[in-house]
Amino acid sequence: MSLTEPSQKKFIAIEGPIGVGKTTLARKLAEYYQAELLLEGADENPFLPRFYQDPKAGALPTQLYFLFQRARQLKELRQGDMFIPTYVSDFLMDKDRLFAQVTLDSDELSLYQQVYDNLTIDTPQPDLVIYLQAPVNVLLDRIRKRATPHEAIIQKEYLEKISDAYMEFFHYYQGSPLLIVNASGIDLVENQHDYQQLLERIQETNSGRHYFNPKPINI
């Protein structure tokens, strides 16, 4: 399919651990598809800095804030402009519980689950989920380079837990067509070749589970 004729996907969700490039890709795809952009808004969460400083004390309010934020965004999507052809998000609602299971103790997780169940979230299923993967050392390097103050204290052990939880989650995921992308060597900002290859795979992926490793340019 030509890159000038985008495939008709109404809702594309991008997922993966911190530092893997979700928001960068979401912004580029939203521009390409002339789509409405839904961002996780981590910078808006007032509890996130204290979570990274003291995970045990900050986990529950951080998680509940994200839950309410994502539920509101998806409700607005359901009620959105019918003339907007596509939505692109840098989060998948199904993964909210993934973080809760990693960060909360048993009592907190039980409370979180009660809140989640009573929200009655009518979550639209994406036409495509893009799962970006990269080794933990690559994630740490990218996090350090972007120099967001509250992320500076993220520990390797925490990233390992999150990355492992993502791998397990998507190993069993069957909710939507899934494109698993090796993002360790992709430069979506400076390397147009990488981006065009990924676009082609996105447009070709309409069902099932697929994997994408970018091919180097032949010189």
TrEMBL record:
InterPro entries: DCK/DGK (IPR002624), Deoxyribonucleoside_kinase (IPR050566), DNK_dom (IPR031314), P-loop_NTPase (IPR027417). It comes from Pleionea litopenaei. This is Deoxynucleoside kinase. It holds the Pfam family dNK. The keyword Kinase applies. It comes from the Bacteria. ATP binds at G16, P17, I18, G19, V20, G21, K22, T23, T24, R142, I143, R144, K145, R146. The active site is at D90 (proton acceptor). GO terms for cellular component: cytoplasm. Keywords: ATP-binding, Kinase, Nucleotide-binding, Transferase. Gene3D superfamilies: P-loop containing nucleotide triphosphate hydrolases. Residues 12-204 form the Deoxynucleoside kinase domain. Its EC number is 2.7.1.-. GO terms for molecular function: ATP binding; deoxynucleoside kinase activity. The keyword Kinase applies.
